Amino acid sequence: MIPFPLSNRYSYLYGFGMNRLNTNGSLLVLAKSYELLENSHEASYKEEVALMPDKKNLVKARLYYYGHEIIPISTTELQMRSLFLVDP
């Protein structure tokens, strides 16, 4: 269950990840909502994905920015920094 204020939300995301373990010791995951894809390269993906109809009783959230930087500390621990801007 996702806690408030993100409960009862859904979104379709375009994202990618980068393995930066050899250069700075981290993994990076970035994403944003499909409807916010702007440049022509990103927008071409909109045509390839069959999105489901809007879901009843849920609010469609727009994720303007969504990112996680994951830094392994040991085999059982990690540090994660997260940033996101979502509406609503």
The Cα radius of gyration reads 15 Å
Total helical elements: 1
Strand content: over 45%
The major pleated sheet works out as: 4 strands, antiparallel
Q: What are the SSEs and their pairings?
A:
Elements: E1 9-10, E2 13-20, E3 26-33, H1 40-43, E4 59-60, E5 62-72, E6 78-87
Parallel strand pairs: 1-4
Antiparallel strand pairs: 2-3, 3-5, 5-6
Which key features would you list for this structure?
88 residues, 6 strands, 5% helix, single chain
Describe this protein's structure.
The protein is mostly beta strands and 88 residues long. The chain has one domain (9-87). It is 5% helix and 47% strand. It has 1 helix and 6 strands. The protein has one helix spanning 40-43, and strands spanning 9-10, 13-20, 26-33, 59-60, 62-72, 78-87. It has a 4-stranded antiparallel sheet, with no helix packed on it. The chain is globular and about 45 Å long.
Summarize the structure.
Helix content is 5%, strand content 47%. With 88 residues, it is mainly beta.
